[in-house]
Structures are given as C-alpha cells and as structure tokens.
Specification:
The complex is a heterotrimer of chains A (about 325), B (about 700) and C (about 300). Chain B has about 700 residues and is α/β, with parallel strands linked by helices. Chain B has four domains: about 220 residues, 3-Layer(aba) Sandwich (Rossmann fold); about 90 residues, no CATH class; about 240 residues, 3-Layer(aba) Sandwich (Rossmann fold); about 100 residues, no CATH class. Helices cover about 35% and strands about 20% of the residues of chain B. Chain B is built from 27 helices and 24 strands. The longest helix of chain B has 18 residues. The two termini of chain B are about 50 Å apart. A two-stranded antiparallel ribbon of chain C has the order 1-2. In chain C, a hairpin with a 2-residue loop joins β1 and β2. In chain C, α2 crosses α3 and α3 runs antiparallel to α4. Chain C is elongated. The chains are: A mainly alpha (about 325), B alpha/beta (about 700), C mainly alpha (about 300). Chains A and C meet through α1, α6, α7, α9 and α13 of A and α4, α5, α9 and α11 of C.
Chain lengths: ~325, ~700, ~300
C-alpha cells in the first residue's frame, strides 16, 4: 500500500470517527431531561411563553433531526453558538480556556517526555541498579496517585503550609493583564504556574519512564547490539543505538498523550482553579450549558482523533521496517 | 607464534542456583592465515568460546582460568577501553543470524561506516568509499549502501555482515554459524565468497558451526566439541576421514551424504550431559556405545591418536570402534530392511490435481473499481501430486518455493484457490462438508518447530488426548490410546512423560509428543513440514526412523517436506522438487538424485556440502536468487537463471510431461545430461560479469 | 452444536485447576520484589478496611454529629473524642475514613474486573478472528478513545442519580478499550505460534482453539491489565466524586476530598485532607507496584535469557 493511499484511508476513517463521536455527544446531551430554562420557570423568573421564545431563539423548538443537522453543520464550521448561561459566544469562553490549558500542559508534557524518556533509557540499560529501582518506584507513586490528590497535597504543603506559592488561579486577583503575552510573561504567573506544572510533570513521568525503560530492556539482549559492541562501540554509544531503536513507541505515545491533552487533567485545573478548558467544561456541565459542553467535548474528541492520525503517520515514517499498510 | 592461542580455558555462567560449566579446559591455536573450525551440536560451548575471544560474554559469564592470547597479548586482562580498540580492528565477527544482527533502523552503509570511523580517523566521504569497496568485494551492489536491512534478502544480509567484517582488514575473523538458516545454494555462494576473500586478504578465520560438511570443506584444522570439552582435534581431513573419538564418529555418521542411499544415518541416543558440575566422568559416557567403567571414572585427556588428538580412554581401539560405529545397531537403532522401501505399494491415498494457492496482492480501491486484475503471488501453482498408502513422498525446495503452503493447503489449514484434492478417493470438500471431524481423523500434520508446536500450558497427556476428545471418544479408550501412542513414538515408559509440561522436555522429546498428537487418531495421511530441521543432527535420524516405521507398518501415506536433501534421500520413496510454486521434477528418489534432469534440481543437489574430506566438489554459483514471486515472467520460472535456457524456455512453461523416463518426470525442455560441464562450469563463467544482485528486487518472502 | 465448538467440562475443570496453581506460583514470584511486597500489604490492608471498615468506625460517618459541651465539634484537630479530628459539619474523620474505604473498594474491584473481562473478551475475539470483526471492534475502541472519558461521564452522571453501580458501569464503558488493545496485539502474536495452528490441525474448532490454546497464553497480560484497571477505576471513581458526581448517599474518600475542598477548610484542616488523600494515593500506588512487578514476569520481552 502506498503511503498516500494509507494516509487517505486513515484520514477518511478519522473523519468518519469524528462524525460518529459528535453524534454520540449530541445524543447523550439530548438525553438530559431538562434545560436550564425549566428551572427558571419553576422559580417564577420567567413565564412559560418567555421560555418558548428563548427556546426558539436557540432552535430548541425544531424537530430533533433538524437540530442534529444544524448542530453538525455548525460544529464543522467551528460556529459553536451562544452560551446558554453566559449570553456570549461560546468561542469567547472556550478559546482562552484552551490556550490556558495548552500553556500549562504542553511544556509539562514535552519536558517530562524528554527527561523521563532519557532517564528511563538509562534505567533500562542499568537494569537492577539502584537508580533503576528507585526511579521506577518514585514515578510509579506519582503515576498511580490521582493527579488531583497530588495537587491537593502540594497545595496544603506549599501554599497553605509553607506559604511559598499562591494557591488559586493563574494570576493574583489584583493583576489585570491585557492579552496573552501580558498574562503569561510575569513573575506572578510563574508563581501560579509552578505547582500545577510540577504536578503534571510528575504525573506523566511514570508512563514515559517505564515505556523507555522497557523498550531498552527488550533490546538489551539483542543480536544487533552485540554486533555494535563487537565493532568496538562504547557503552554510551551502544545505549544511544538502543535508545534510537526504542524511539518508536515513545513518539507514538507522546502523540497520543498530546491528543488527550485537553481532557487530561480536568481535576487538576479544578484544584488549582486554573482557568482552562477542563474547568470551563465542568462548570458548563453543572450549569447545563449545552453549547459550551458540545463545543468543548467536540474539541477534545477532535484533538484525540487528529493526534491518533499523527501517531500512525509518525509510526509509518519513523520505522523503516514498517510498511505503511501494516499499521 | 600462533595468532590466537586459547589455552586451558574454563568458562562458567552464573545461574540462579548452579553455575553452568559451559567450557572446560579447552585449548587450541590458530596460525596466521589459517582456517580453524569449531564444530559441535548446540550446548557444546562453541559460541561461548567465540564470544570469549571477543570479550562479549554475557554479564553472567566468566573466564575462570586459562589464557586467551592474541598476537602474544593476553586478552583476559584487557579493560573495556582496551577491548574497544581490539574489537574489529584486530578481530572482526560475523554473527550467527544476519537477520537480527543488523540494526533495523540504521542503513547498512551507515553501520559499516560507523565501524570504520570508530577506529580510523577518516572523513565520512573516505569511509563511504571503503564501504562501497567492501560492498563490491562481497558481490553487493554498492549503490544500495543507503538501504535498510529489511530491504535485503537473508543471503544478502549475510553478505553485508561479511562486508562489515572486512572493512578494517582484521587479522582474525570469527564467523559464528555464518550460513545457518540459509538455503544450500545461497550457503554455497556465501562460503565461496568468504573463502575467496580470505585467501585474498590473508586473514585467519575461526569458523563455528554444527555442520560437519561445512567444516570439512572449508577448514584446515578442527576441534570437535562436546559438553564443553574438546573431544577430538587436528587436521580436518584426518579427523573426518579417520575419526578416533566415538563422538566424532557419531556426529559424522549422523550427517548422511545426499547420494548415500544404502547407509542409514545414525542418531546418538540420550541427551546432553548436565553441566552444572565440572565433569567427573567422560562427558560423552552416558551416550557412548563403547563406554566402560573406566569412562565413568574420569574425563580422558587429549592424547595423540594417529596424527590427531583425541579425548577417549579407548583411543587404541579406534579402528574397531570406527567400523562398529557405522552400524546403526551399535547406536541402538533397529535397522529396517531396505527391501521394504519400494514405494507406491498401496492404494492412492492423496491425489492433487492442478492444485493452486494464489495470494492476491493488495491494490488500490480505484483499480478494484476499474476491474483491473490484481497481481497474485502464485505460492502453489498447478501442482499434481500422488501419494500411496505406505509411501513417503518427499518435497524439496528452498525457502519461499511454496512447499509449506502446499502442505497447509493439503491439510486444509489454508483454503485452496483452485484445483482438486482427493483423499482416499473422496473429494476434500465432501469430507469437510459437515465439520472437520472426519477429515482431521484421516489427515494429520506435523509442524516444523518442536519448541513452539506444543501449547506451553498443556501437559503431555492433555496434548495427546485432545484430538481424541474432539472426536468424542470415551475416557477409557482415550487413556489406552494415548499411552499406546506415546510409547509407540519412543517415549517409554509413558507414565514418565504423561504429566510433563513441554518446558520439561528436550527438543527431540517434544517433537515426539507432536508426532504422537498426529498419530493418536490413526490417520491415513500424514503431512510433515520439516519435522526434523530444528533438531540437533544427532537426533534427526530418530524422527526419520519413527516416520519410516509408521509408513511401513501402518500403511500411512506420508508427505515429507524439507529443504534438507540429505534427510529426504534417507527417508523418501519418491521425491518432488519445487521451484516457485511448481514441481520442477518428480520421480523415485534414487532416480532424481542420481540422474537429475531439471537444471534446478541438479544445482540444488550439487550444492550440498560433503562430509567426506576426499570428495572434490565444485561449488554451485547459481546466479541471483529466486525472483520476486509477484509478476513472474512468462515461460519457465527458472529460465532467467538457467545456463541452458533457450528461446523456447522464455515463451512456454514446460509441463512435467515434457521430459519423462518411466515415473521420472521433469518440467524442462532441455534436460541436463552432465552437471559439471553444462551447469557448474557455466555458472563460474557467468560470474565473471556478475550482475546478479542488481537484478534481484527486494527480499523474497 | 458442531464438534468444533464443543468444550468438554472435564477439560475446562482441569484447566481451571492448573490455572489456580499457576496463579499461586506467580504470586509468590511477584512478591519476591520488595516494592511489590509493600504494595501487597497495602492492598490487603485496604481490602480489610473495605470489608470491616464500617463496623470498626466509632461513629456513623454521616448521621452522628459530634458534640462537646453542647455545641457541635467543628473542625477539631485530632485528639480527644475524635482521634483524627472532625469535619466542619462536626463529623468524625476517622469514621468517615474507615467507612469510605468500602465504596472505593467496590468501584475499584468491580470497575477493574469488569474492564478486564470485557477488554479481554473483545481483545481475544478481535485478535483471533481478525478481518472485519477486528476492524469493527478496533474502530469501536478508537471511538471510545476519542470520546473524552471524564467529561462524558460527568454528562451522563448529571442526568442520572449517581450510585456506585452506575459509576462502575460508566467506568467499564470507557475503560475496556485499554486492555482490549493490548490483549488483541498479544493474541495476534500467539495466534501465529505453531501450537495454535497445530490445534487446528488436530481438529479443534474456533471456540476450543480460542479459549483453550490462545487464551491461557495471554491470561497473564489479561490479569495484569485487570490489576491496572482496578487502579484506574479507583482513580476515576475518586475523580468523579471529587468533582461532585459521586454517590451522594455514601461517604467515599473522593467525596471527603470534595467536601474539604469545597468548604474551603482545606486551608487549615490538614487532618481532614490527609487521611483520604493518603488513602487513595496509597491504594492506587499499591495496585500499580504489584502490577509492575507482575509485568516483569508476564511480559516475555522483559526477560533476558542467557544462552
């Protein structure tokens, strides 16, 4: 199978998958028994007539299939509509939240992928060493403990206990930055950044470390490393080759993890009150704000599907022995 | 002074529980420019010695005592840093399996270049020049240095490792089973290349192999190893012409020559000695037919016998032992009466008519849509084969020729895509119409790999009784037949084996269990796909004997598939030779072997190495490798490689009826009359302008 | 039923018995690892608490409000009547901690086992049959990968009243894909091994081949991922509870953390935070430590064999 054909097939599957995913999301949301307005009627703030008007405004009075078609159309043109509870375009709510999440998680993911993978390769090469044993146990602890628990423990130690770092949000309440650059480039931001960043790095470190360590261990007895050694390569050069041969699963895993970036640490955002997409989503669900929920979930699904596709392509490209069709 | 002197070396592996004494007091030396062979079966310590010379022992392996001197320098004292300069610069290494030994994610050129630049301070361009040079030396296309290992076929990969070994002109090359796993014709070409280059460059060679034929043809001197001990040592010709040690005798006789029909191969009974303790008796004592009390008391020293050295307490009786060792009965094997081997005695049990198995190649959806005919790999292409009751029909061929596919199609493990199969006069479709019970009770299969053909979680009893359970027999019958069959295949007493797991059995025992699984249903047709190829030579004959007995006593028809011509000629009544999905030649084994008609058969037969040091054999330098099975050219498949091919061969595909002599048929327009002049010499001439590797596209599956 | 699909009970019983022995040997082997030993002790302690915790609790975790001198004991540090202190509603933290182990255990155990079983069967079927079955099942796993687990679970739990069993079901719905993928690729390797072909040649049908020849050889990986799934389920269950989507009628460790966090008492009441936080962290770590040691045994690639 040619690479182009492989890419085409994969992309088609990804597109189809996205369609099914958003349909499932649509169906699930429509199963919600009530919408926020019924509550308002009950409390007497709106008359039933007014509610009908508002429902018409949001297109909620149309037959379900019309709603469905419109919903699909809008999603794929990235028109997410108006928030039910905040009366402003969903895009305005979601995009800054996405950026905030990305600013927190992407550097954390990249940092841990590089550091933990290298540490893992070293650990695998020195199998049975003190370094291997302790690095595995330490990262397993952080990998296993739910990230919000780590976050809470960090909070009560470093914020409430020692008072070193702020506990809440991304900037101090007094700061009033304008635009992304001003928000992110400040010492105040850095102070807020440190704890959630550290928690994320530690949380992800375990998987990369074990994956790198296992791949190197798998290759340690291999014939080709023996030949490298017979050629006179030094220990570190041999480890380099073992590492290169272990790269594939790591890159694939990195791509998959990146895809799950937005849904990765919702609870952590809640703990640190980080104004990211996860926190926005939890609030929207609590407020039954469908358009926001739809948009956020759609973006999360899309990110996974796109990064899965990237992982497949990276796999086919990185390993000369893999024919595109084998993936 | 010798180049390499190994003196009284002991090597042990630390294992949980016990140490394994892998090598015990081994000494030998290699002179400059010499070829030295270490020969022995698996577990004899030969690879361990090779690794110790390169300082590549696994972490749990130690050289306990003795010395290894290279060019007068003690290698045991080297630090890892010193080792790095000795490796490859002075001693290079050709690994056992080129398949796994090349770094899969690095181009082959870069791997060789890495070796050069590690030791020489040269520019990348300069190193690349050398890479191209060694590529050409080993007969590889120098434009392919940028390719990755998986883009080469097995034989070509082995050439890459040879090229790598030559890159720095080392004084000593250690080759660890360099041709194991390769087809005979490829093996012949590789060995020829290796010898040629070594002659040219004057480096010494330490060749490690289990194949007596390979050593006999390539090495000046040899050590025969068993259980970590040198059993016999000396000039190769002398050692194999007149062995003075019972083990050498057994090993040599276990390798039948292709054209020896009258001599039955022997197998050495018993199994390897326990090496967790240093040997206190002769290591071969428990398997040696000549052992006496003295042999149980101590392992004998190497003493002069004729002009070689032999470790045997009875070395002065060598001549008598040698005579007796030729008789299989000495080794506890029942001699079967040759008269019984007539073949074609009973009714026809299997008949295939134009059998086809074509694998469709994937193609674009658009092409499907346009109705374009897809490409096929014709793994089995109109094969007609007949097997009678009590007859063993051998199918020979190189890897990729379709012989295993043929076996699996006949056994209904794969669907056929065309033609007919008839079992005992019933079409296979009728047998399989309801369910597989009926068919499976008639046709059974024995697989190649005894180490993988038994479920690791199933005990022998469960494994052998499963086919009967599926057939729905009652527990009593099952128990009786399981015991009977297990003993029939030589696992006596059955009680000793029934509750064992596969991991507790040796390779030979496992293969017997697999055979018992097949025989317990009392099938009428048995299909064997290389049943002995993964076993040590000294065990092969056993398996062959069991099969022969089944054919003779139970009138089972047997299809025996193998790449190993010597074992085929030992066992088969009739022989079919396959090339690229077709049967090229078929006839009574003796006719095919003595007077091969198809040029391919003749080449294949001529490529088997001879254990007899006096045999003077021309190497088979058949150009190229079997072509890519997709898109075969019209005409005879073999024509592009055939020195006798005429225009006719490119136009029409000859039928097997083209050349007949009684039952002996060959699909060839211009059958061979004289192998030497018509083929072997022509191959050598053709090599002058050898462009073979350029023609070859990709690897063969 | 045609013969190929026939599994005789005798064989099955014999298999199960030998599997039991195997499990015991494996456990002894796993526990040679020190960190696994620690993990095992944690799991056993946790299991004990899950079963007997509510009985050991000195007070009822929700109904009893501790009084001292006529007033509610709000946010009392450890000591006196409340060994581990009290919540801002005057509840005994030790009792909540002891009682909270059970829902965590149930969600972990059933979510994990359910995930393991469903994933194992899907992976086995998918890998064994290949072709269209495989294509369909694998696209299904892709789909569950694409749908974000926590948000979807939150949405679902916002229109049904969360109970332990619904939460468990939701977890299984979203987690089965992980073992399914791993088992599938493992099955695809085992399927190519000679003994599987051999079983077919001896006349075994698909069911028999699948369950008696393929399955036992991937069972180790299956158990490994079941163990991991127990860990994931505990994490997921606790996360849901922490976000306020736990079973409102029971006390779980996740819910304790939610309450301390939401009430703002987290700033001062470390004694309220630490027991559930350490409890969750210890249990999941214990599960993963044992799982990891087990992985060293079942993953054939991690075994470096000597000549």
């Amino acid at each position: 199978m040619s690479f182009r054909r492989f890419l085409l097939k994969r992309t088609l599957i990804a597109a189809l998958l996205t369609l099914i995913a958003v349909s499932v999301i649509f169906a699930t949301l429509r199963m919600l028994p009530a919408d926020p307005f019924s509550g308002l009627v009950a409390s007497g703030s709106l008359t039933p007539d007014e509610v009908d008007q508002i429902r018409a405004m949001y297109g909620l009075d149309e037959p379900i299939y019309v709603q469905y078609v419109k919903y699909i159309q809008n999603l794929f043109t990235f028109q997410f509509g108006i928030s039910l509870t905040q009366q402003r375009p969903v895009g305005e709510i979601i995009i800054p939240a996405l950026v905030n999440t990305m600013v927190l998680l992407l550097p954390a993911l990249v940092a841990t992928a590089i550091v933990s993978s290298l540490a893992g390769m070293y650990a695998g090469w020195n199998r049975g060493s003190w370094f291997e044993q302790s690095s595995i146990v330490v990262t397993t602890v952080f990998r296993a403990t739910p990230i919000f628990v780590t976050g809470i423990l960090f909070l009560i130690i470093f914020s409430y206990g020692l008072g070193w770092l702020p506990a809440f949000g991304m900037r101090s309440p007094l700061a009033n930055p304008d635009g992304y650059l001003e928000t992110y480039l400040s010492v105040d931001f850095l102070k807020h950044y440190l704890l959630p960043f550290a928690a994320t790095v530690l949380f992800y470190s375990g998987d990369f470390l074990m994956l790198a360590r296992n791949s190197v261990v798998e290759r340690m007895g291999s014939e080709f490393l023996m030949l490298h050694r017979a050629k006179g390569l030094s220990e570190m050069e041999q480890l380099g080759r073992a590492g290169r041969n272990s790269l594939l699963p790591l890159v694939t895993y990195f791509a998959l993890r990146t895809g799950m970036l937005f849904q990765g640490v919702i609870t952590l955002e809640v703990v640190f009150a980080w104004p990211g997409i996860g926190r926005a989503l939890v609030q929207a669900i609590l407020n039954q704000d469908y358009p926001t929920v739809q948009a956020a979930v759609f973006i999360m699904a899309l990110a996974v599907i796109i990064m899965n596709l990237t992982a497949d392509v990276a796999y086919a490209k990185l390993d000369p022995t893999v024919e595109a069709g084998d993936v | 002074m010798s180049l390499l002197e190994v003196d009284d070396v002991k090597i042990t592996y630390r294992m949980p529980g016990d140490d394994v004494h892998a090598v015990n007091n081994v000494s030998f030396s290699i002179d400059e420019g010499d070829n030295y062979g270490l020969v022995g079966e698996s577990g004899c310590g030969k690879s361990t010695i090779a690794k110790s010379v390169l300082g590549l022992l696994d972490d749990n392996g130690d050289v306990r005592s003795g010395s290894i001197r290279f060019d007068g320098r003690e290698l045991r004292d080297l630090s890892e840093r010193d080792w790095m300069s000795v490796r490859w610069e002075d001693i290079a290494y050709i690994p056992q399996s080129a398949m796994d030994s090349l770094d899969p994610v690095m181009s082959v050129g870069a791997q060789i270049r890495q070796a050069i630049r590690k030791h020489r301070d040269v520019s990348k361009a300069k190193a690349d020049e050398r890479v191209a040079e060694v590529f050409e030396m080993v007969g590889l296309d120098p434009t392919r240095t940028g390719d990755y290992p998986h883009q080469f076929s097995g034989g070509m990969r082995q050439r890459v490792t040879i090229a790598m070994a030559l890159a720095l002109d080392p004084d000593l090359i250690i080759a660890d089973e360099p041709t194991t796993g390769l087809d005979v014709i490829v093996q012949d070409k590789i060995l020829n290349k290796l010898m040629e280059l070594q002659e040219e460059l004057g480096s010494s060679l330490l060749l490690i192999t289990h194949d007596v034929g390979v050593v006999a043809e390539t090495c000046d001197e040899v050590s025969v190893l068993y259980g970590g001990k040198v059993m016999e040592q000396g000039d190769t010709d002398r050692v194999f012409r007149n062995p003075t040690n019972p083990y050498t005798m057994g090993l040599k006789n276990a390798f039948p020559e292709v054209d020896e029909f009258d001599e039955q191969a022997i197998s050495i009974p018993g199994s390897l000695p326990d090496l967790t303790e240093e040997p206190t008796s002769c290591v071969f004592e428990n398997r040696c037919p000549f052992a006496t009390e003295e042999c149980g008391a101590s392992h004998p020293d190497l003493v002069a016998a004729n002009e070689q050295l032999s470790a045997c307490h009875h070395v002065d009786e060598a001549d008598e032992m040698r005579d007796q060792a030729k008789d299989p009965e000495t080794w506890g094997i029942d001699v079967r009466n040759e008269v019984e081997r007539t073949g074609g005695v009973g009714d026809v049990i299997l008949e295939t008519d134009g059998l086809e198995k074509w694998f469709k190649q994937p193609q674009g959806i658009l092409d499907d849509f346009r109705g374009k005919e897809p490409d096929y790999v014709k793994a089995v292409n109109s094969v007609d084969l007949t097997v009678h009751e009590g007859e063993i029909v051998g199918v020979a061929g190189e890897s990729g020729c379709g012989k295993s596919t043929l076996a699996e199609v006949i056994a209904a493990l794969q669907d056929r895509t065309g033609g007919e199969i008839t079992i005992d006069a019933t079409p296979i479709d009728d047998l399989l119409a309801e369910n597989t019970k009926e068919f499976r009770s008639q046709v059974q299969f024995i697989f190649q790999d005894p180490f993988d053909s038994l479920n690791p979680r199933q005990r022998v009893r469960a494994a052998v009784s499963e086919p009967l359970k599926i057939q729905g027999h009652d527990p009593e019958t099952i128990d009786r037949r399981v015991r009977q069959t297990v003993e029939d295949v030589g696992l006596k007493p059955a009680d000793k084996y029934l509750d064992q797991l596969p991991a507790q059995l040796s390779g030979g025992e496992r293969q017997r269990v697999a055979i018992a699984q097949a025989l317990v249903l009392e099938p009428t047709l048995l299909i064997c796909d290389e049943p002995a190829s993964m076993l040590d030579v000294s065990l092969k004959a056993n398996i062959l004997n069991i099969l022969r007995e089944m054919a003779d006593d139970r009138d089972i028809g047997i299809v025996y598939i193998s790449h190993d011509l010597a074992s085929l000629t030992q066992i088969a009544d009739r022989l079919a030779v396959m090339y690229l999905g077709r049967i090229a030649e078929m006839g009574a084994t003796e006719d095919v072997v003595r007077t091969p008609k198809h040029p391919y058969t003749a080449s294949l037969l001529a490529a088997s190495p001879r254990t007899d040091p006096d045999a003077d054999r021309k190497r088979v330098l058949l150009p190229g490798e079997p072509p890519n099975p997709v898109n075969l050219p019209t005409g005879c498949n073999f024509a592009p490689r055939c020195p006798k091919a005429g225009e006719q061969c490119y136009r029409g595909d000859p039928e097997r009826s083209e050349c007949t002599e009684g039952d002996h048929e060959a699909a060839c327009y211009f059958p061979v009359e004289d192998v030497e002049t018509e083929l072997l010499e022509r191959y050598i001439e053709a090599r002058e302008d050898d462009v073979e590797e350029v023609l070859e596209g990709g690897m063969t599956p | 039923m045609s013969s190929g699909y026939f599994l005789d009970p005798e064989t099955v019983i014999e298999r199960l018995r030998s599997q039991g022995g195997r499990a015991w040997r494996t456990l002894r082997f796993v526990l040679r690892d020190n960190s696994a030993k620690l993990g095992f002790v944690i799991i056993v302690t946790f299991g004990f608490m899950g079963i007997f915790g509510p009985m050991l609790a000195p007070y009822h975790p929700i109904e009893d409000t501790l009084q001292q001198g006529g007033s509610m004991m709000r946010l009392q540090p450890p000591g006196g009547k409340a060994v581990l202190g009290t919540t801002s509603f005057g509840k005994d933290i030790l009792s909540q901690f002891l009682a909270g182990a059970r829902p965590t255990l149930i969600v972990g155990l059933f979510g994990g086992v359910g995930t393991g079983v469903v994933g194992f069967l899907v992976g086995l079927t998918s890998g064994y049959f290949g072709g269209r079955v495989d294509e369909f099942l694998m696209r299904l796993t892709d789909l569950t990968f694409a749908l974000p687990f926590l948000p979807m679970a939150l949405v679902i739990l916002s229109f049904v009243t969360p109970s332990i069993w619904i939460i468990t079901a939701v977890l299984v719905t979203f987690l089965w894909k992980m073992p399914a993928r791993v088992i599938r690729s493992e099955v695809m390797t085992v399927k190519e091994r000679t003994f599987v072909k051999s079983a077919r040649a001896r006349g075994a049908g698909h069911l028999r081949t699948m369950f008696l020849h393929v399955a036992p050889n991937v069972l180790g990986i299956g158990f490994l991922y079941t163990a991991y799934a127990v860990g994931w389920s505990i994490v997921a269950g606790a996360s849901l509870a922490f976000l306020g989507f736990g079973d409102p009628t029971t006390t779980s460790w996740g819910r304790m953390l939610e309450q301390v966090f939401r009430s703002g008492a987290i700033r001062v009441a470390w004694w309220w935070v630490l027991p559930p936080a350490i409890g969750i962290g210890a249990v999941t770590t214990g599960v993963f430590l044992v799982g990891r040691a087990f992985e060293e045994i079942v993953n054939p690639d991690l075994q470096t064999e000597q000549e």
